[in-house]
Amino acid sequence: MQYPFEAEPLPYEYNALEPYLDEEILHFHHDKHYVTYVNKLNEILKNYPNLQNMTLEELLINTDELPNEAKTAIKNNAGGVYNHELYFACMNSADCELPTDKLALAINSAFGSIDQFRAELTAAAVGQFGSGYAWLILSNGKLEIIATPNQDTPISLTVTPLLCIDVWEHAYYLQYQNRRPDYVDNWFNLINWDFVGARYMSLASKSSVS
Ligand code: MN3
């Protein structure tokens, strides 16, 4: 995927995540916030034909190749596209409350238990000051939890994101107002563990983790 980037459709119905996330939030979040990042990225890249053959990942990783005057805008908007696509893909309506198989083993090994994993991811998401994301990442074959501000993305740190939660206020304010901890708590019901597990298996094998 490269310029001109096209917005991916939401991978489920807009009301599929109720009662944990309202249809109205999904409309604003996907159709306005996410689509705006796609459009702005294309607007910027229109002026840089030499960047138009780069993938989204390349734009975020090979930042040395970006012109100085456009570097921040490209980072913010390409990050906004990448982060939102992963965030939407990491959720679904299925009652899939726990990871399974090798990902479950890896989570237990890295954090001690699923409950501890949940506590650490919650702390990162609730504790992120201002806008940003909390992530489960794969770094040198090990699972870790980090938080990033704004639209910064872990792939720029050369680690691999497996799962993310958007904690910008636009992700929850219409339904939860200032109660970010309630949003985070309910979001755990929405994690698409089949997707995250498949992502782990495919990426872990690439970094030679068994
Ligand atoms: Mn968002």
Textual characterization of the structure:
The protein is mainly α and 210 residues long. The chain is built from 8 helices and 3 strands. It has helices at residues 23-45, 56-61, 68-89, 101-111, 114-127, 173-176, 180-187, 193-206; strands spanning 132-139, 142-149, 160-166. Helix 1 packs antiparallel against helix 3 and helix 4 packs across helix 5 (114-127). The radius of gyration is 17 Å and the shape is globular. The mean pLDDT is 94. The structure holds manganese (III) ion (MN3).
User: What portion of residues is helical?
Assistant: 40-55%
Major sheet details? 3 strands, antiparallel
User: Please, what is the average pLDDT?
Assistant: 94
How much of the polypeptide forms β-strand, as a percent range? 5-15%
Give the overall shape.
globular
Strand order of the largest sheet: 2-1-3
Give the uncertain stretches in residue-range form.
Answer: none
Number of DSSP helices? 8
Offer a concise description of the structure.
With 210 residues, this protein is mainly alpha-helical.
